[in-house]
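A further point concerns the way the authors explain their paired sequence and structure data. Showing the layout once, in full, would remove most of the difficulty. For illustration, here is how one protein appears when written out as sequence plus structure tokens:
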Amino acid sequence: MKIELGLKTGIALPLLAILIIGMSILVVFNYLSQINILQKEEAQSIESSINTAQFFIETAGIHYQQMAALVANMPDIQETLSKKDRNRLIDKLLPTFNYLHENFGLAQFHLQIPPATSLVRLHDLARFGDDLSTFRETVLQVEKTKKGVRGLELGVGGVGLRGVEPVFYKDNYVGSVDFGGGLKTEFEQIKKAINADLGVVLYQQPLQKWPGLQDIKERFGEFVPIYFTAKDPKLFISESALKEAAQSKEKYYIEYVSKFGKDYAVVYTPFKDFSGKTVGFMYIIKERILTPARIFTILGINVFVYALMLVLIAVVIGYFMNKYVINPIVTLTKTADEISMGKTAQKIEIKNARGEIAVLAKAIERMRITMKKLLE
């Protein structure tokens, strides 16, 4: 069955269809563009947080190594260490350690003699003379290579950042000196810098010599949570996510979780010791930029804005189409019909006629005049 459309409907429907299709394309394009921008912003925020955390940890190791190098290159200290004069070392260095401990939170200042034996722990003077070869791998490496080393070390004291430097006297290796500290201070500084909570989980196996391992009740399979700037790591991390992170070949692995009515990205990145071996994972809890609610809001705003634009454009186009095209044609059609029935008295005047419609109006007017004369 053939559907007959009037002039208004015939013009309005295709025009409206074109507008709807065009606006729909713009809605989708704009929506996808905004989502893409937010995705990039979120990825950049995550990347920046990881880089900042790694920078703080690396910088702490450099500072410890710099302090160790400073002490290791003092001629008086070199001579005293070569003589294994413990009391003289304490007299010279203990005031410095106490000042650094009280004012800057320095946790460890330690001097060793070969073969891997503790001579002075300025942070624990009662302990000395013990064999370090079973748990101080940084000291063993310095003793073997005669080169400094820095980074994370796992031992009987738990987890710490170390900077260790060899000490020479008259070109002979006489021992080593190291400075160090725990992760808490560094992680609190990182938290302030990135405005996000973070923590670290380590494989259990390398921590077997650490007595404090028995006091940690939480376990995530083969992983142990060592430190977290918030209260409870169970709220954000899981054994399955840690397994996925361990299997991932990417720079970091992300799991998305919802807690307390908010959406978070839990970012896992490998945590490596001084030798470059992965001993666990550092995780950062970032509140998401691109949440489902925000995605829905963006979509809703886009639909509303473009629907409003569609209505406004349709109204404006409809108004001018009616005024300058449709109404004049309707008037001319009615007039032509009246002329065909012999009604030729009324002069044809189309106020808003433009272009071809004005030409058509004049042609019909001439036809009216001609018909009128013929009828007379």
The CA atoms of residues 39 and 355 lie 52 Å apart. The chain has three domains: 48-56+185-288, 58-183, 295-375. The chain has a mean pLDDT of 84.
